[in-house]
Design goal:
heterodimer; A: about 800 residues; five-stranded antiparallel sheet; 21 helices; 39 strands; about 25% strand; B: about 350 residues; alpha+beta; BirA Bifunctional Protein, domain 2; seven-stranded mixed sheet; elongated
Chain lengths: ~800, ~350
Amino acid sequence: MKFTLNWLKQYIDSGLNATELADRLTMAGLEVDSVEALCPDLDGVRVARVASVAPHPNADKLTLCQVEVEGEPRQVVCGAPNVRAGMLTAIALPGTTMPGGFKIKPAKLRGEKSEGMLCSARELGIGGEEGGIMDLPADLEIGAPLVAALDLEDVLVEVDLTPNRPDCASVLGLAREVGGFVGKRMTPPVAGPLPRLTGEGLPFTVTVTDTDCRRYAARLIEGVSIGPSPWWLKQLLLAVGLRPINNVVDVTNLVMLEYGQPLHAFDFARLSGAAIVVRKARPGETMATLDGATRELDSEMLMICDAERPVAVAGVMGGEGSQVTDATTSILLESAYFEPVSIRRTARRLNLSTDSSYRFERGVDPEGIPYALERAARLIVELAGGRLMDNGYDVVGELPGRASLDLRVRRTNELLGLAFSADRIAALLNSIEIATAKMDEETLRVTVPSFRVDLEREVDLVEEVARLHGYNAIPTALPAVPMRFAHRDAGRSLRQQVAAVLTGFGFHEAINYSFTSPAHCDLLGLAADDPARQLVPLVNPLVEDQSVMRSLLLPGLLENLRRNINHQQPDVRLFEVGKVFRHRDHATQPEEMMLLGCVMSGRRHPGASRLHYGEALVDLLDVRGVAEALFGELRLADRLILAADAVLPSYVAAGTGLALAVGATPVGWLGQVAPSVAKAFGIKQDAFYLSLNLDALAACEAAPKRFASLPKFPAVQWDLALVVADGVGGGDLLAAITEAGEQLIERAEIFDIYRGKNIAAGHKSVAIAITYRAEDRTLDDDTVGKVHERIIGLLESRFDAHLREA
Amino acid sequence: MDTLKLETAGRGLAPSLAVKTKCVMEDEILRLKGEATAALGEAGKEDLEPFRVKYLGRKGLFTSVMRQLGSAPAADRPRLGKLANDIKQELTQAFAARQEELGAGRGQGTATRLDLSLPGRVLPRGRLHPVTQVMAEVCAIFEGLGFTVAEGPDVETDFYNFEALNIPPHHPARDMHDTFYVSDALLLRTHTSPMQIRAMEREQPPLRMIAPGKVYRCDSDITHTPMFHQVEGFLVDRQVSFADLKGVLSVFIARMFDADTAIRFRPSFFPFTEPSAEVDIGCVMCGGKGCRVCKQTGWLEILGAGLIDPAVFAKVGYDPEAYSGFAFGLGIERIAMLKYGINDIRLYYENDLRFLSQF
């Protein structure tokens, strides 16, 4: 809602300057969005009279004007089509800097002297779309500064209204609030008793057939002459961002802003049957609205019709066929109350939001309707002439009544933490025209004024008390609550633990949008029956790339990888912890799963000095190491199973994938992203990925922390080198050793794998160090030797291996 | 060893082998000590290693002498052995001192000086996303006040996101939420407030809870991303007042920003609170003087709050006469922007390492 300070002043003299006013409004819950001086710096722009106009000798479209400002008339070259002798207009004298920064200088235009420039409102930054130079009222003083002559010095204030305060979508409503905090009452332009409208003896009929129209008042004005509005009205409308149209339409707009009551003016001659019928649209009916569009109507839309057809979408927009034109002579003026939900529904359905629908949707003042009508009718007669018929229609149906609410003093104080008396509370409410009657010291009976549609319950009044007293004046306390241990969510703890481990490994955390591109499924080469294809689509996405909920974290992280590579950061370790979504059906919330995704690419030690750590690139064992260490930290390492033979999605490069399970519970996978997939995402370097389902992981029980005594006797380490076929897994050799059941074996570790000279083709030598220790004695060579021999024998027979000759 | 033998023999000293050996050995040890001490005194940096090899090394002169002790008379051996040992130790210490004096350093026999100007051997850690960091900070403050953390679904029902929060269909307040719809009944939650309802349906007062999470609005420009993070908090008990709300939020703001951060509460509107408030803090950029960030007002809006509307209690079956409570909600991205001076909200979701590694 926009208004100007001068406008507000017509109804209340607050004595506040713009900054004070803005601050008070904001602190009263009417948040001021902007305050701006309305008139640009126009020093040097004066009122001028065009004494004569003659053609320019050297240009068809220019004229030579003799202009009176002060002293001798001066010659000005003008290109405006509307220049005429005798008119008053605005001149920018040489030396003036125009709002755009252009400086006016004496000049010669096509050989003719020009001392100054005749200006349009637009050029001066004080008007919108009008063509031609300003056509000023004849009673202005010639030579006077334009700003003073037109009283242009004003301040535009924009208030960001909350939806509960339609009463303040009007200058009068705001004036009432201002009155509350300066202790005055605003004076509306129309007060006192209004003529009783009975609908009798009128040359037209009004019939309301639908309960969504709760009140319909109409007056007829005959013999108007349509023309442009006077300067002050145009100026006011332009200031608040409305386009002046003609004197009648402009008045309806002005009164809408003044009273918050949208009005509509029909060209009476174009209402078939001289009838207004308020009804729902009939199936198949259409109507051309004022904006030139043809609207398909449905049977829930409330329409204003004449005897034959719809002439306006009630409360939303008028129809083209009945609009006021230059030829109009009789006006039927409408002021009504329409059911808010009905208007909102229609506006939504037609995708039409107007100043009118905004107010009706939120609720206009049902008792303000005749006042707004009277104000507009009088103003039209004043500006457009004509005769207002004494009688009119005021069809009143079931209206929201003035609620009567009991406000408990104790309850108010309890909820706010105050200790106010009934009288103090009453005074606050009375300051904005809310009437109260004190029933006893504990109870106020409050009559809610009709314009405050938001006050329906006791608690709404409690808020008014708080608001009028000022939130910042309410004391500050801390609640006395029972001491209690806050329950901790296991899933959240797990996520925090995972994040801590991964940042320790040099991974940065990424957060991607939960919505993504449906094209990712194909880029990943997902099989037709892959569950990740069960996408949850959005009905109204902003862009195609964000039109489905993600079903995997991988695509987002691959896009992050590409972005970083493209920005010259090819060494990437990123992880994301976030939800993915799987469609179930349209009525059911989708499945939401919490996943972890980790991507590694580029150098093994990103961000670390190459001097110290070299340039080696990550490979599969790096991502496997991350997984193993992570499971170690989660105390799940003992039950972690990495299976190379599991079936993994095709976006995992063949022969690189390992499925991860904790016991029998599958929890994820790791592997290299298939190069074809990486390429589809614009990535040319190897990328490795770890995917974990954190929901599944949270359900796994971590091994408890248990102390084991430190060994008292030394360990001995014996090495062996086995030659085995290439296909034998090194890890399998280790597993065979540790699973052999030998009590003395503490640990086995591969420390070298060798292929080449002295090793048969298709074979490799695997060097293993075995650590032996007994709990109760120092081991001697004989004892260790026997176990070592048994292990060698076991490996030789199980893996077809033989000891490498020294 | 051979050199020493030759030298000793060449000098042809005392007749008694025993005496000769004793004297020769003792003299020899002392002579060696003198020679080595002198050499060490004159040694430059590059002489140190040859010195070490010649006198103190495994095959050096002192080792040779000590090996020869076996040929000394048994009675003299302990004394000579101790003498040789003491001298060797003395020399070793002198060598170390000389080495240090020359700044030659020890280890591996290299004479190269350590380059102390080189960077250390660091394996950099990763960082949590700034949103996660701020979220954790917010949650920690409220957890410290005894609030439980609860989470809910991102894809919500119209009921939990709107209706139960006193926003019926066709309510103009729906205009405040640019909603992404999944179907007629399902949507991406526009706030984390639905957790109020889910929690109150499940539990009876007293309740203290915060609900962090992602929320969605179909709005995208320089100051809005279509997804962002919010923390909703609420407390329900008997006799909870607006003054309590002010107190808890003041504690929060003092912790999150500065103890002397200016705070103001001003009236606003949310369908699920009554009275409703917006909470502003003194602009952290300009200290309240007015700047571009605070639109010259000196204030920054950071929280929405209010007493829980009785209509919400009615939806979950709480008696609004018996219980009251407050609720609040705040946007994490905005707070992170203010705390860290981030000037473009879009940076949050590009996941550029140059951004992520700053926090």
